[in-house]
Amino acid sequence: MDIQRRPQYNQQVMSKEVLxxxxxxxxxxxxxxxxxxxxxxxxxxxxxxxxxxxxxxEWKYTHVSKLFRNDLLCHAGTPKLSPSDIDPYRLPGHDTxxxxxxxxxxxxxxxxxxxxxxxxVEILPLWKAAEGPHAEFISKNLGHxxxxxxxxxxxxxxxxxxxxxxxxxxxxxxxxxxxxxxxxADSRNGFVFLQPRVLVHVEAAAQLQIAEQYISLxxxxxxxxxxxxxxxxxxxxxxYYKIQDEGRLANHVGTTHIRxxxxxxxxxxxxxxxxxxxxxxxxMIMEAEHGESHLYGLxxxxxxxxxxxxxxxxxxxxxxxxxxxxxxxxxxxxxxVFNGKIFVRKDAQKTNAYQTNKNILVGAKSSAxxxxxxxxxxxxxxxxxxCTIGQLDDEALFYLRARGISEKNAKSLLLHAFAVDILKNIxxxxxxxxxxxxxxxxxxxxx
Amino acid sequence: MLRxxxxxxxxxxxxxxxGINLEIKAGEVHAIMGPNGxxxxxxxxxxxxxxxxxxxxxxxxxxxxxxxxxSPEDRAREGMFLAFQYPVEIPGVxxxxxxxxxxxxxxxxxxxxxxxxxxFLKMMKExxxxxxxxxxxxxxxxxxxxxxxEKKRNEIFQMAMLEPRLAILDETxxxxxxxxxxxxxxxxxxxxxxxxxxxxxxHYQRLLDYIVPDHVHVLYKGRIVKSGTRELALELEEKGYDxxxxxxxxxEQA
Lengths: 447, 254
Description:
The complex is a heterodimer of chains A (about 450) and B (about 250). Chain A has about 450 residues and is of the alpha/beta class. Chain A folds into 2 domains: about 15-290, no CATH class; about 390-445, no CATH class. In chain A, about 20% of the residues lie in helices and about 40% in strands. In chain A, the strands form 2 sheets. Chain A has a 10-stranded mixed sheet with strand order 2-1-5-8-10-12-14-16-18-20, covered by helices on one side. In chain A, strands 3, 4, 6, 7, 9, 11, 13, 15, 17 and 19 form a 10-stranded mixed sheet that branches. In chain A, helix 7 (about 395-400) packs across helix 8. The longest helix of chain A has 17 residues, at about 35-50. Residues about 1-5 of chain A have low confidence and may be disordered. Chain B has one domain: P-loop containing nucleotide triphosphate hydrolases (Rossmann fold, 3-Layer(aba) Sandwich), CATH 3.40.50. Chain B contains 10 helices and 12 strands. In chain B, helix 4 (about 115-130) packs across helix 6 (about 150-160). The longest helix of chain B is centred in the middle third of the chain and has 15 residues, at about 95-110. The radius of gyration of chain B is 18 Å and the shape is globular. The model of chain B has no long low-confidence stretch (mean pLDDT about 90). At the A-B interface, helix 7 and helix 8 of A face helix 2, strand 7 and helix 3 of B.
């Protein structure tokens, strides 16, 4: 079976200038020795594999190649920020959370505040973890996502792995306080690209909540190319939240790659509210029997935002359960894309895998593309998928208006109800209320 | 309160109402009866402002305003209420929040103060007794998974909360068992007073055993072909609609 394909993009989309530009920056940043071999291979792969062309099936709605143009070959560098630059964007409950700050893709130890006890959660720069006691874990697990995304975009991030962070939740620890990761794109001096890298190890029977949020400073374009990899052990419980409410000029390609190496529970909620061109890859790799995972997504788009959610649930062993629900609302000229792959491998009998994608088009010039993709090689499984693209229900609108509720409020009441379905899966209450507020503000929902 | 003159309405170029004339005064209860397809529900929909119907001729005056010029929400705020024949299920919107929004938007329109949470709750408790509706039903999503009877009771509960000047009940009795019918009728009778009015759209006479109308009209082929008192409803029950049809057809031919 050929799940982990390795296509090479023969059509070279990038110019030599673009290739050299990134190679030069990579060379100038000088990878730490412990990760030098990894990042050398990565920059080599980047040059060989290239960027997916417009015609590529996986990227046909999301033309990422336009972010690798010659005229965007500048990099504003990594500025020094102070904590007060971050303050307006801190997530609720931050005073008990560990707050990790990346500035233009580089993990910033001085801005980050580690509030967990070291015996519960260990947080280190990735290079430091790689030269210390975690060397073996890192050499085995760093870059696992590349087998699912054999492209130059994933590889390019690897070239800057030295700037990343390593997080480890210790065996048997139920960690109540979350880890917050803030990705700051400071474009005040011009176009910036960010290559943040995160590697997380949730050991056996540990519980961890992680939320990532993206912050734009400055009015220029930015491009974040993130790779987040997480390995969950036996009986671990992981809750992962990704909150995208960046500036109008923020582009984003992010891969969240979650592996279940033992029977465990992993949940992911992705909320996308604004940005320019956005591509989220979310992979749930279920490598052990009896694993359970939940994937939720809400994309509430307006203006000209393009948001593309590509998910993979790879069932490799029997008796796994996964449930996936993505909902989208497209206003103005925005575009929403959903592609959900479910693989059920030959040995993965008794798999239960469910997938639903629902879209509402509000804007007259908005659009939605949805594609469920099931590849099943076992014969005793339960899999289902369904997708809808529609408009607000006229009869429901009339019902609300016939009770004296204005058309505008009736619409926001219905859209909020549609979105709330996803919100209830954000478990920490302060975070859920925060996202609800963002959504309510967007919908001008005030009841 | 309501004056309908020569009202014609169509849907998808199909003429349904062909000249309705009707006047309803404060304190009155009118019943509109008629066979299936006569235009009863269309009349209710046109009055409430459902957009898929097109008014091709005639006028409707409500509380001194040109009703047909008003949006559905403004009709409601002016005091018109339609109890839906098929109340819509809306997942994710709690019944309580929905009614609170409706009550307060209406109050705002009429220049009344916003009802605070305590006052709203007190009002809700009172009206809940009226239609014997349970709190648990109101904390659920609007009509979601409600039985037919629960949906209809919820309509009457909303009516009680919004205190309309004119309530139109579109076949609220259909599909109700006798207990539910009694509860619905009781809700209407308790809210009935000299300042408001009701228009009961129904196929059967049995609702009129519980809500006694002042006037009964028979609708056939988009026109009111006969008007009378409660006795007309009883006559219809006894003879069926065929005698009306026969009467009407022979009058047409003559």
